[in-house]
Amino acid sequence: MHEHYDSLEVRSPQAREAALMAALPAHIAHAQAHSPAFAQILHGVDAAAIHSRAALAQLPVTRKYELLAKQQAGRASSPFGGFNTQAFGPHMPHVFASPGTIYEPEGTRADYWRMARAIHAAGFRAGELIHNCFSYHFVPAGSMMETGAHAIGCTVFPGGTGQTEQQVQAMAELRPAGYIGTPSFLKLILEKAHSMGTPIPSVRKALVSGEAFPPSLRDWLHAQGIDGYQCYATADLGLIAYETSARQGLVIDEGVIVEIVRPGTGEPVPDGEVGELVITTLNPDYPLIRFGTGDLSAILPGHCPTGRTNHRIKGWMGRADQTTKVRGMFVHPAQVADVIKRFPQAHKARLIISGEMANDTMTLLVESQETAPGFTQQISDAVRDITKLRADIQLVAPGSLPNDGKVIEDARSYS
Length: 415
Fold this sequence. Notes:
24% strand; alpha/beta; AMP-binding protein; AMP-dep_synth/lig_dom; ANL_N_sf; 4-stranded mixed β-sheet; 21 strands; AMP-dep_Lig_C
């Protein structure tokens, strides 16, 4: 079994950096010429001069909330806010939507989201069947993984989300080599298989993403005979970094330039210091340049013991802003505000995310003196409508929530 996906993973760091920096000026020029948004953002920038990380660091950071704002403002002319370079038609077979709502285009290149590298690192090989439990509805996750699996020669069963009993039945009958999806859903499937008395012995490996993958859950899966590996990807950028058999951080993908900056700025921090991940993707169809993910991480020293020579990040270490991810879905402070706007009796709210080992729970504390029956259920229904997630509702006295500006509190344990 070949350890590495291709020779790019083991080239010298100097050769990699030279190749990335050589590609950068043409990529920026392409974005300026064909992406109306970047024509504006990078107006006056000499693309030919952006051939080093120091020069790249002088360009503005575009953060996710700014992408959302531009999309919302410009949808009459472009659903992508002008960040795309391709129009609807044969070069854009799919459009996806992420909570916000943010729209993402998918192009025609094989392994468009560059997921094959992570799938290979998780142990999948050509000729195997993969049970893909990422959503194929609205969000790009299902397609991201499927196109990556096809690139390495795998067949995919599009399991999607929900229906754990049917998932178990399909696994028992089709005998896939492994699972791709969120780690919490894999745990649910395994528990359902146990309660049904239906063994699924073929599932021996997994690539998980979309939410935290704590060591406790990794060890639990290992006790069930499954080696689970994680990757870090976003709907805007595709793959950013992936775990290897060394289990020492996440190796950065070969198709992106990763910077870690001081939150709220575009200033790179020294290696080892925690900061916000800012990514430049060399995707000509959707050329996001210095895109601020809002996620925190840090560069690990040295190289991966597997021989891969790219930098590694520690993994997801929280959010630079209050936006957080629950069961694979982003939850934004603006969504909490939208819930409260529906109820004049509610004055202020704080969403608390708690739980451990893939058992995320949401509790919305709402300042209100309302005592009418069914009021909390109405709020719960609104949360479900806006975030697509369930939350417990607790009414608290007006003025009792802290005056610290915090709308979302992530109180989960990742130990």
